[in-house]
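Supplementary Data S3. Sequence and structure tokens for construct A.
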Amino acid sequence: MSKYLVQRLVLSVPTVLGLTILIFFLLRTVIPIDAVDFAFASAEASDPKREQELREEFGLTGPLPVQYVRWLGRILSGDFGSSFFTGKSVTSELLHRIPTSVELGVGALTLSLFIAVPLGLMSAAKQDSLPDYAARGSAILFYAVPGFWVATLVLVFGSLWFNWAPPIKYRPLWEDPIANLRQVALPMLILGLSPIGTQIRLVRTQVLEVLRQDYVRTARAKGLGTREVYFRHVLRNSMLPIVTVVGLQLPGVVAGTVIFEQIFVLPGVGRYLLDSVQRLDLYVIMATNLFFGFLLVFANIVVDVSYAFIDPRIRLTSR
């Protein structure tokens, strides 16, 4: 297990390196102007000397490959640069904001699993019945309804009908857990609606497939109860595709917090990215995109390693 984990970590290095190349050169070539041009565009008079000084200060001079190597060297030392507009370290800002986005994304996926797995099991157990149709219809509804639209409706009608609004001042989980949960519980639930739709249908499909296997018929023939058959034999053997999908949903859900952090005024990475895009804050844009890409690579590693814990028939060894 440890040898396989080391191999996966080593193989992820070229992936992350390729990700840095893609992010840097795409952003430096697709965006026609940089933050220095953007800042001086709103000024009444340009100052070419000052613009050149700022570009040298922020490492925007020289050929693009030289700029990339310079930026990569700073990243390897833990320095993602500084914001062009606030002057604050991007690294410190990310460390401050990552827990909020991860809490929101992981919480949304956790809630979705607690809702989707029982509904999927019930739907499979009562195939082609009214509960099955209700669960499948709910899955389609959850997947189809845009989360930002639901969030907007909740805020608008909550204010009009109940004189309610979510707290604006954010309190971190480690400072005030109760106040934190009051603020993030609702966006967690709304953010988890789309994953719920996917997971219900996936759980139902996988459970129905396992129910047709010979060992399930044998377990029932031996006199095992329905509950024991489902939880001891069916559910565990249905988990591999579910874990794969959930693991790959995590980066997308965390990246999807951009809208919800803006709507519910949460100081996360998504809101940080949105603000930086509006101001063309280059180093912030690159660092936040690299974070989301690294999260996807990390999720893939966790999914691969978790297979051995779910299914003992799988051995994570190299041949």
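Construct B, processed identically:
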Amino acid sequence: MSRRRRSREEQHHDRWVVSYADFITLLLAFFVVMYSISSVNEGKYQVLSESLEGVFRGVDYSFDPVQVGDLEKRLHQRDIGLIDQQPAAAASSSQVVLADKKTEELAKIQSDAKKHFQELIADGELSVSSTRLWLEIEIQSSLLFASGSALPSIDADPILEALAEILSRYKNPIHVEGFTDDRPIQSNLFPSNWELSAARAAGVVRMLNHFGVEPERMAAVGYGQYQPKVSNVSATGRSKNRRVKIIVSRDERVRRALTSYGSDFISDDAVEAILKERIESETPGTVTEQQTQEGVIFTQDSPQ
């Protein structure tokens, strides 16, 4: 009896070995699984890295499908958006990085302007918009001038003073664009709408300087009736075409490009192309204007 009872007790005490073996097996399987899911796919990691870099730096936009797996080293090339022109060569990071301090300043100016002029924006008498390279503040001429006059009215002082207060905090170049409708002006002071639009733009520049904006930052441009926003067929359309635009540029080169072509008829992609050092250092091609169903498009021939 004692021998049989002792053998059963010994077998009972040895059962922990089975549980221990099961535990070790499960632990091994756990580490195998952890190792398998922790191995990094370098191809996927590179795609994620480049995607995040493009989002936060605002560069190298692409509509090409993303390749998953091993990726070959790619040249960062992008089309400048102009008709009949070859894609631009790979640019250095200093040329294409837009999400810098100057771009952040444009965003702050836009935010401040929208907060201050909420009522005028809601009434459609003032609008604030922006691209990656410049900010536009468009004001209806009726808010600033009497009919046929280029002298800012007293009612315009609060608007221009508020704008000057916002713009004086920064150093961005500014140019003011004046526009009219297509009705011939009948005034001894202004022989044509060109003179009127330029005088109105200069009047706004003078008032902004009076309220604290540095004069060396600003310029005035008059386009007359030749860059209408909408058709001049109706009185409503003519009213919309009588306007003044305050353009706050990212830097001086952007301001010069916008002044040459006009902010209404040139895209930010085209400005980027014009400003590239590669194009500036070479003999530029001929820039021509083409009328399309979608609007006016500027094209540039390849340099000879």
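The longest helix spans residues 16-38. The CA atoms of residues 44 and 68 lie 6 Å apart.
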